[in-house]
Write a structure and sequence with these properties.
This protein is α+β, with helices and mostly antiparallel strands. The protein is 36% helix and 25% strand.
Length: 419
């Protein structure tokens, strides 16, 4: 794949100097946007120092495996934090200086994001726009906690309070995300001086579909709408190989199918794309031939299976009790207990499965407790319905009265902001 890059930064219409800084190094596959803060030109220094430190560390060499490279990217941002902090301690005029940092590393069909602050990474894919970063601000956290609605947050006077930044403190917590990049993807790294003027995702998504000079157009639009802050846009288009490689097309098809299948599985339906990618990174894909046993009744295997292609049959004591199609899942309780499998599952046709082992699931939950809570919320709903069904009376069973979630509904999700 080829990366087509364009970027622009602007002081805006009200600020006296530009504390934003962006770095683009296509050879390394490294792209960084920083938004500095602090008086006496300290913000400018912090943002530039952070971006250049990240390039220095990554330029010294990173692992081919993206899960390892992502930790190296995290370490690069932590190293930048140390340098900025030490400079602030040494020079009293720069004490407390800092910067946001969104650093993107793209290599071999994978990307890693290391993120601190309220700059953002957007992904435009298949006509949809996704925010892959989480703002580290007082208001964003208030909305996530349900304290404020999005409308109340937009009207608040505290929109510029950043809760996490590179430099002000001796240590910093860095968000890291690993995800697949596909031909046709458009990635936008930008400072809050840009994204605050594009509250409508449809408008921003449409703008990213432009042919050329998109970054300049976005910056000009932010200026037209007020330009109250420095403005930076760094655009990375993922172009297919010419001619397109069959392996590249196959991988794109598989990644799309995996995400689509997980999105429609009830247990994962609360997750946004950034959260789904964390789960996808923990999955392994398995091809199973027709007639092959996947799990055996009485054994103690650990893990959840999701059927992407094909069908499987579920047998208890040798008798078929269910036939599960693509999109179905089984084995979720093995993530929570060590009881033997209650049934045998065998492939009725050639199948492709996604397998989430228990230890990989625990690792995801430890990194992102919100993913674990959302998963367990859906699992509790599913188990509640099964428990109700188990207590159906004979007359109810005869009348086919089932307390199914999709028929009777469930309580509204607690994970979406109150309106």
């Amino acid at each position: 794949m080829r990366l087509l890059v364009e970027g622009q930064t602007d002081v805006g219409r009200t600020r006296g100097h530009n504390e934003d800084f962006f770095l683009s190094d296509p050879e390394l596959g490294l792209f960084v946007v920083c938004d500095g803060m602090g008086g006496h030109a300290a913000g400018e220094l912090a943002s530039r120092m952070t971006a250049e430190t990240v390039r220095e560390v990554i330029g010294a060499g990173v692992d081919e495996a993206m899960d390892v490279a992502s930790e190296q990217l995290r370490a690069a941002v932590e190293r930048a934090n140390q340098r900025v902090f030490e400079l602030g301690v040494a020079d009293r005029t720069k004490r407390g200086m800092g910067t946001t940092c969104s650093a993107l590393l793209v290599r071999g069909g994978k990307a890693a994001l290391a993120h601190v602050g309220d700059s953002r990474l957007y992904l435009r894919r298949g006509g949809e726009l996704h925010v892959l970063s989480h703002d580290h601000t007082f208001l964003a956290e208030a909305v996530r906690q349900g304290v404020l609605t999005p409308e109340q947050a937009r009207e608040s006077e505290h929109g510029n309070i950043v809760t996490r930044a590179v430099g002000p403190q001796e240590r910093v917590l860095v968000d890291v995300l690993v995800f697949d990049v596909l031909p046709g993807d458009v990635l936008l790294l930008c400072s809050d001086g840009l994204h605050q003027y594009f509250e409508d995702d449809a408008e921003l998504g449409a703008a990213l579909d432009g042919d050329d000079e998109v970054a300049a157009t976005l910056v000009a639009t932010a200026n037209e709408r007020g330009g109250e802050d420095n403005i930076t846009a760094l655009l990375v288009r993922v172009a297919p190989s010419v001619p397109a490689e069959p392996a590249e097309l196959d991988r794109a098809t598989q990644v799309t199918a995996d995400l689509s299948t997980l999105h429609h599985v009830h247990l994962f339906s609360e997750l946004d794309l950034a959260e789904l990618t964390q789960v996808c990174a923990a999955l392994d894909s398995r091809f199973v031939a027709a007639g092959e046993t996947i799990v055996e009744q009485g054994e103690g295997t650990e893990g959840l299976y999701v059927i992407v292609e094909g069908e499987v049959e579920v047998l208890r004591d040798g008798a078929r009790v269910a036939l599960l199609p693509a999109g179905a899942h089984f084995g979720e309780m093995a993530l929570l207990n060590q009881r033997p499998r209650s049934a045998t599952v065998r492939a009725s046709t050639d199948c492709r499965l996604l397998h989430l082992p228990r230890d990989a699931f625990y690792a995801v939950v430890q990194r992102s407790p919100v993913v674990g809570v959302k998963f367990l919320w859906r699992l509790a709903q599913t188990l509640g319905v099964r428990l109700d069904d188990a207590y159906d009376t004979p007359s109810q069973a005869a009348e086919a009265v089932k307390r199914q979630t999709l028929i009777y509904g469930v309580y509204p999700s607690p994970f979406h902001p109150r309106r």
